[in-house]
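Session log. Operator J.P. requested a structure for one protein chain; no other inputs attached. Running the standard single-chain path with token output.
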Amino acid sequence: MEDKIVTLDTFMNFMQAEIALGKLQTAGISCFIDENGANIYPLQTDALGAYKIKVFERDFEKCREILAQSDEAE
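Structure written below.
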């Protein structure tokens, strides 16, 4: 069975995406930042929200919980 990769969230700037990515990786989640939109439209990156965190579909709900908990703690 193949694991589908899905978009967990989209961010307006790279630093926000990097912070969320770090929280997920610290929790042991395999994930990465897809920057293709930033490379295709470099002048419109912030407007398009070109930084997308990608995760395996099986981890999607767990990732949402991790990010929600960290948002509550801040």
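Operator note: Residues 60-73 form the longest helix (14 residues).
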